[in-house]
Amino acid sequence: MIAVNDGSTDNSLKILKAFAAGDKRIRLISRENKGLVSSLNEGIKLAAGSFIARMDADDVSEPNRIEIQLDCMLSDPAIDVLGTYITAIGDIDSLSRQRTEQYFNIPLSNDVIDKTIFDKCPFCHPSVMFTKRFILGVGGYPDYKVTEDWALWMMALKQGYNMANIPVRLLNYRMRSNSKSNVESKQRQYFYEKALFKFKSLIESDVAKRSCLIWGAGSGGQIAYEALRDVLPNLNFQGFVDSFKSGTLMDYKILKPTQLPKEDRPFVFVASSIGKEEAEDFFI
């Protein structure tokens, strides 16, 4: 086991040293805080085995988790990434626990992941096991603050790797109730990074040369606009589309769907979960 102590300030290092002293299989790495992505990639480079099981310090794996996942992957060598069902634990209410389990506990084949990944993250990150061949093949975890896992699965699909989920609860996933401001800040960063990742794939495409609009004039639209400008600063951006709002947003006009040109229509980025179905119906 490789344990990376990422600059902790509690008793984590003392506890890890005690375990490592009594078990030669534990390799302890301790240094200043560099963040999750650096810690993950550092541990991966040091791993000597063919399979890597992801784990967070505050979660609890079932005793047979590694055995079950490894058996599944050995019996089907085509699987590169394998997640599991989870049981939500920690300082949360029953409704939050239920919603978390419903979100993650969906058996997913690679085909289903491909169809749903833009709407949700297909795995509970600490539950996954993957081959070292896979993670080195995609170049390790991408450098994102909160969407490093989602971006990794996107890269995996793009490069033709195979992923799946098994319907067995093998991880007790710890959650904590945070302040509203902390949750909102993390959610905003999450949406920004997802938009940033998607827009980066358009840099070399014809879309970068076209005029464009963003469907959704709420917070999602604003975040998408910021990411779009960061990636494609010279893009011919014309404004926002929203059935329920009017006026301007960030000095750009807010159009109704009926105001969109019927010919030479701009490329439209949908940045609204509420308006997604409406946009699909409008264009299809």
From TrEMBL:
Keywords: Glycosyltransferase, Transferase
A Gene Ontology molecular function term of the record: hexosyltransferase activity
Pfam family, one: Glycos_transf_2
Domain Glycosyltransferase 2-like stretches: 2-136
Organism: Cohnella ginsengisoli
Keyword Cytoplasm: no
EC number(s) per entry: 2.4.-.-
Keyword Glycosyltransferase: yes
Family label: Belongs to the glycosyltransferase 2 family.
PANTHER family given in the database record: GLYCOSYLTRANSFERASE, UDP-GLCNAC:BETAGAL BETA-1,3-N-ACETYLGLUCOSAMINYLTRANSFERASE-LIKE PROTEIN 1
Annotated protein name in UniProt: Glycosyltransferase
Superkingdom, natural source: Bacteria
